[in-house]
Design a protein that fits this description.
GO molecular function: histidine-tRNA ligase activity; identical protein binding; RNA binding
Catalytic activity: tRNA(His) + L-histidine + ATP = L-histidyl-tRNA(His) + AMP + diphosphate + H(+)
Structural class: alpha+beta
Number of strands: 17
EC number: 6.1.1.21
Number of helices: 13
CATH superfamily of the largest domain: Bira Bifunctional Protein, Domain 2
CATH architecture of the largest domain: 2-Layer Sandwich
Strand content: 5-15%
Distance between the termini: 32 Å
Strand order of the largest sheet: 14-13-15-16-17
Number of domains: 3
Organism: Salmo trutta
CATH class of the largest domain: Alpha Beta
CATH topology of the largest domain: BirA Bifunctional Protein, domain 2
Order of helices and strands: EEHHEEHEEEEEHEHHHHEHHEHEHEHEEE
GO cellular component, one term: cytosol
């Protein structure tokens, strides 16, 4: 992917129990309906008696709720199916991702940030001692849109870093990998194309199984050659950061895969942004990290093509999560808590903008563009209700451009 080229992305980070099962039933249902045109119609709609909330409605709803409360998969058998009184086929909410992308497609939304905490249900074998229940509360934060590569990805990791640090859980590591890197690795190791997904699901078990057991499953149950399995074993033991991405780009086998090289180049770019956000101490590029769900397409939980599955025009839209806890007012409803837009008035200032964003100890955001227009940034402030836009002038002096305030602020970063 070349410099100025824009690629749609989907990133999802789930706080709570991880999703290791695929939403196969929904994918199969659409394929079946699509192949039987004339008899059935695939219609996007909310279930009878339910509704979605747009950001403005949600802002008002949360404000009211706070007042009233005193301010305080891989296997379809895991989905709870049911029918309503009219015989319409429904399911209990399995995750927060699929309902979100359906909402985007139905309402033709191309840009949005949101977070969502709500109960989901899995017909799974409970493991109480490990915190695995059939109902639980995941927390998703998503950003939807088309942006320059790796900027939203880096911000997602920055948010996870902030959450885990604030919770004071002790030492932690955030592992990242890329689907294109995995697929390229499988290809150069000799995995047949039709076994990519099933081998990926087996590699995904390395966090709870030994390599010997994982290898045995790949060879004895899934028919992979022992030689290919051994080559995979050499790669999935690797961990690092930008240094590992650079080393793999020079690797005799990985360098033969265009897919792997593109993913590794993106990984280098990601770590360069993470350095600006000052979070590389907790982020690890880990080749053993894998996810078996078909809708994941990139680092972490990106799902670039899932909206297109619902959209008859096949548009690609990017969700990545972001927290919105808005305040309502008589004149205009704010749909974000963001206080600062860290703006860039000139070209080629992305690194400085990200570094400044990392230093502001308030809720701040940046445009996910390498060279955004200043008027576009200010218009975003106006549309979103962000009261202040700040840009660095020189010597660490920050100029506040919005809300009729003009004053100098010293940079609050550690640099």
């Amino acid at each position: 992917m070349t410099g100025s080229q824009v690629r749609p992305i989907f990133w999802r980070v789930e706080w709570g129990e991880s999703i290791d099962e695929e939403v196969a039933k929904l994918l199969k249902l659409k394929a079946q309906i699509g192949g039987d045109e004339g008899k059935h119609q695939f219609t996007l709609k909310t279930a009878k008696g339910t509704r979605d909330y747009n950001p403005k409605q949600m802002a008002i709803r949360e404000c009211v709720c706070e007042t009233l409360t005193g301010k305080y998969g891989e296997d379809s058998k895991l989905i709870y199916d049911l029918k309503d009184q009219g015989g319409e086929l429904l399911s209990l909410r399995y995750d927060l991702t699929v309902p979100f992308v359906r909402y985007l497609a139905m309402n033709k939304i191309t840009n949005i940030k949101r977070y969502h905490v709500a109960k989901v249900y899995r017909r799974d074998n409970p493991a109480m001692t490990r915190g695995r229940y059939r109902e639980f509360y995941p927390c998703d934060f998503d950003t939807a849109g088309q942006y320059d590569p790796m900027i939203p990805d880096a911000e997602c990791l920055k948010i996870v870093h902030e959450i885990l640090s604030e919770l004071e859980l002790g030492d932690f590591r955030i592992k990242v990998n890329g689907r294109r890197i995995l697929d390229g690795m499988f290809a150069v190791c000799g995995v047949p194309d039709d076994k990519f997904r099933t081998i990926c699901s087996t590699v995904d078990k390395l966090d709870k199984m030994s390599w010997e057991d994982v290898k045995s499953e790949m060879v004895n149950e899934k028919g992979l050659s022992e030689e290919a399995a051994d080559q995979i074993g050499q790669y999935v033991s690797m961990q690092g950061g930008m240094d590992l991405a650079e080393r793999l780009l020079q690797d005799a086998k990985m360098s033969q895969s265009k897919q792997a090289c593109a993913g590794l180049t993106d990984m280098k770019q990601l770590f360069s942004y993470l350095q600006l956000f000052q979070v590389t101490d907790k982020v690890v590029f880990d080749l053993s990290l894998a996810r078996g769900l078909d809708y994941y397409t990139g680092r972490g939980r990106r799902y670039d093509n899932l909206v297109g599955m619902f959209d008859p025009k096949g548009r690609k839209v990017e969700p990545v999560c972001w927290g919105l806890a808005p305040q309502a007012s008589a004149q205009k409803v704010r749909t974000t808590e963001t206080q600062f837009m860290v703006a860039s008035a000139q070209k080629n200032l992305l690194n400085e903008t990200l570094r400044l964003n990392a230093g502001i100890k308030m809720c701040a955001e940046v445009m996910y563009k390498k060279n955004p227009k200043l008027l576009s940034q200010l218009q975003h402030c106006e549309d979103s209700g962000i009261p202040l836009a700040a840009q660095e002038l020189k010597d660490g002096v920050v100029d506040v451009l919005r809300a009729n305030q003009e004053k100098d602020l010293r940079r609050l970063s550690h640099a």
